[in-house]
Design goal:
The chain is an alpha/beta fold and about 200 residues long. It is about 30% helix and about 25% strand. Strand 6 and strand 7 form a beta hairpin. It is globular, with a radius of gyration of 17 Å.
């Protein structure tokens, strides 16, 4: 069984090395959507794979980091990077070209890491990200599936960098995960997040 939750945001970027001049030579924005699909082998005490409300916590914060944000490849022209950092409070520097395909892989990897680093408290089974579908525009999307993390994981060996305006919106748990946790693979077994304990109303 699979469940899916949708998130939305607004983001600006340049996609270098692509075929379309509009995309590779001009800073431009998109109204993006991220569809997160979770899969599990069993249901929890509420008969759910994962409570949709729980996805409004660290997972939503992580995705919202990209909302009203300028995203750039850390190998881009330094003058351009300095300009973005000077004139945009919200920016994210990524170790890859911010195409729809790469962003779908990035969200897949990051959200799975958050799930792996979460202490579950309602008898959830092991939860996997089945896929992440990233809509760059209303008509164009890229989908990353869990198998893609294995074949394309090298892109995530370098950490990403966020402006203070982005990290100011994070919980302390997400910030600790970003600095010291699974994101940088220093303490991969640490549970940086914990879901609320649930009283069983009906047994």
């Amino acid at each position: 069984m699979i469940i899916t939750k949708e998130f939305e945001g607004e983001m600006a970027h340049i996609v270098r090395n692509c075929s379309t001049n509009y995309c590779k030579k001009s800073l431009h924005g998109h109204s993006f959507k991220v569809l997160v699909s979770l899969k599990a082998s069993a249901l929890d005490n509420a008969g759910m794979i994962y409570d949709f409300g729980l996805m409004k916590g660290s997972i939503k914060q992580f995705i919202n980091s990209f909302d009203h944000c300028t995203v750039f490849w850390d190998k881009d022209n330094q003058e351009y990077i300095d300009f973005i950092k000077k004139h945009s409070e919200r920016w994210i520097s990524l170790p890859f070209n911010p195409s729809a395909e790469m962003l779908s892989l990035f969200f897949l990897s990051g959200i799975q890491s958050i799930l792996d680093c979460t202490k579950m408290n309602n008898n959830e089974s092991k939860i996997f990200l089945d896929k992440v579908q990233y809509y760059e525009t209303r008509t164009g999307s890229a989908t990353a599936e869990k198998e893609d993390i294995v074949s394309m994981s090298s892109v995530f060996e370098m950490p990403f960098e966020c402006s203070q305006s982005v990290t100011n919106d994070w919980s302390i748990e997400l910030f600790n995960w970003y600095l010291d946790g699974r994101h940088q693979k220093k303490n991969p077994e640490t549970k940086w997040f914990e879901n609320p304990k649930v009283e069983q109303q009906v047994k």
